[in-house]
Specification:
Elements lengths: L2 E7 L7 E7 L2 E8 L2 E6 L18 E3 L6 E3 L5 E3 L11 E4 L2 E6 L1
Antiparallel strand pairs: 1-9, 2-3, 3-4, 5-6, 6-7, 8-9
The protein binds FE2/S2 (inorganic) cluster.
Length: 103
């Protein structure tokens, strides 16, 4: 059963911005692009290293370990050495608060 975790009030999110949210040993990478929110597991698909907020480089997610880049909208791997897409995480808005689900 998923655990829904508060991210931030939707109204407080800047467009074309991104943030990371840690929950236990998990990390979500959340972005808002042109008014739409996206969330992905913050774990690189190349070697299971955590992706870092400070290394985000819109419009791509950047892995600081070996330089792979991922699309912020689809999670698709854009450059090697990663070849697999990031895992999407469900999002919802509850009473104006953006929430992400960890399963
Ligand atoms: S761990 Fe991310 S590119 Fe290697």
């Amino acid at each position: 059963m998923p655990v829904w975790v508060d991210v931030a009030p939707v109204a407080s999110l800047d467009d074309n911005s991104c943030l990371s949210l840690d929950h236990g040993r998990r990390r979500a990478l959340i972005s808002q692009i042109n008014g739409t929110q996206y969330a992905f597991e913050g774990l690189c698909t190349h070697a299971d290293e955590l992706l870092e907020f400070s290394r985000w480089d819109a419009p791509a997610i950047f892995c600081p370990h070996h330089g792979a880049r991922f699309c912020t909208r689809t999670g698709r791997a854009l450059t090697p050495p990663a070849t697999r897409a990031l895992r999407p995480l469900p999002l919802r808005i509850d009473d104006g608060i953006l929430q992400v689900a960890f399963d």
